[in-house]
Structures are given as structure tokens and as C-alpha cells.
Amino acid sequence: MRKTAALILGAALLALAGCAVRATPQDGRVHVVAGFYPLQFVAEEIGGDRVGVENLTRAGAEPHDLELQPSQLAALEDADLVLYLRGFQPAVDEGADLQDRARTFDVSKVATLHGADPHVWLDPLRLAAIADSVAQRLAAVDPAHAGEFATRVADLDGRLRALDREYTQGLSDCQRHDVVTSHEAFGYLTARYGLNQIPVTGLNPDEEPGPQQVRDVARVARERGVTTIFFEALVSPKLSQTVAREIGARAAVLDPIEGVEDGATYFSVMRTNLATLRDALGCR
């Protein structure tokens, strides 16, 4: 209800201000608005200094819970391109629906999703497919620099494929293959690299599991010799710590990369995740 009210208020403010005509960026760059960090990352990697990217989700915030402010609605109105993933951020979905569809790009259209799980960027090859389409959209907005976008996306594609090879090799010889997580956010990653995700809760990070559900996960983890229970960077570790204590394991962070802080990047966090998984799974 609060999200809808914010959208209505923002739309009214834009109309009163005469914002039906989009402003032209003063620096001549393509103005991109991204719903959350991985889409910001892709746009910046491909666009370079030809693109200015605004992330609607501030660093360290949970993107699922985003509520758009009037200034953010104005940014959507002024954007040359809006990047979002439908179903992941309901407020952004509503805001995007108010815009000209030619200026919005729902990246789920080029990355086949597993049911309702939105965390597609945790598979580097799926993110590469998204990047290819983003490059095409940027080229349509700024044809004069299409060649530059093509060169940069080719470089990004190469680095994502190299990362995929690092994961494939790094997780190819492990003593364990079960990844117990507090939140069901790692299905794409575990499916790509032959691992088995055992979530304590479902896709909603705010879901509270019942005592029996926690006991069942703890029992399975104990039977399978799990040594690490994972929690997310932006979510309380209490649930994972509870399960870990129950079976004599440890709790550790596995980051779904919904946002980054302190100079981290998609590549640095993915490589940290790989090192964490290798340690937890006893990989050689």
C-alpha cells in the first residue's frame, strides 16, 4: 500500500512539474537507471564513460524492500534506459510500468528463470546473456557509440566465461556437495556447478521457518556431514547460527551479490564466494 501511494504521489509531482518531456543529460551521456547492483555493474562495464548509471538501491540496503521516493520516480521518468528484473523489486516493477516501454528493459526476458527465483546473476553465463542484450539496448539509444559498447561487452563476456571456468575447476573435486543456506538464493549457482542447495527458508528472506523445519534441515545437514551453514551479507545470521550450533558446524557468509560495499565488485565477491565454498566443501 505504501509503495502504491508513493508511486501515485510521485506521478502527481512529475505531472505538476511538467516532467512529461524527459530532460536531456547535461553531460551528453546515456542516462541509465538500474534497479539493483548487478544491473548497475553490467551497465557500467559496457557503457564506460559514455553512460551514467543510477542505482535505485543504496549500498547495504536490501533490494527486495525498496520503496521508491519521488526523486527516484523522477529518475525513472528522465532515464534513457531503465534496467530491472520483474518480480524481484515490486516497487520498481510498478515504476517501470509507468514509463514508455521502449525505454525499459526487463532482463528476465533474456535469462530463463527457475520458477520464482530471481538470482540469475549468480550464474556467470546467464549474466553474460543479460549483458549482451543490455549492450544492444545501449547501442539502440546511442548508435554513434555502438562499436564501443560491442567491444566492452565482448571483454565482459570473456571475463565472465573465465570466471565460469574458475568455478568449474574449483568445485570439480570436493568431498561434499551440499550447500545449506538460510535463504533459497543460490539455485542458479548450485545448479551450474553440480552442487545441492538445502535452504532453511524459501525465496523470501523475511520468511520465518517453524521449529520442525529447522530441525529437519539440521538433521539432513548432520547426516550428510555438512560443516558450514551459510547466511547472507544483508540478512541476520541468527538462523544459520542456530542450525550450526545444533550440528556442531560453523556459520559463514555466502553473498548473493544483491548489493556491494567498500569497493567490492561482482567479480571480487564471486571469487570470495568461490573460496568460501571450496573451504566449506573440502575441495582439492
UniProtKB/TrEMBL annotation:
InterPro entries: Bact_metal-bind_prot9, ZnuA-like. It comes from the Bacteria. The keyword Isomerase does not apply. Keywords: Signal, Transport. Residues 1-22 form the signal peptide. Pfam families: ZnuA (PF01297). Belongs to the bacterial solute-binding protein 9 family. This is Metal ABC transporter substrate-binding protein. It comes from Dactylosporangium vinaceum. The lineage of its organism: Bacteria, Bacillati, Actinomycetota, Actinomycetes, Micromonosporales.
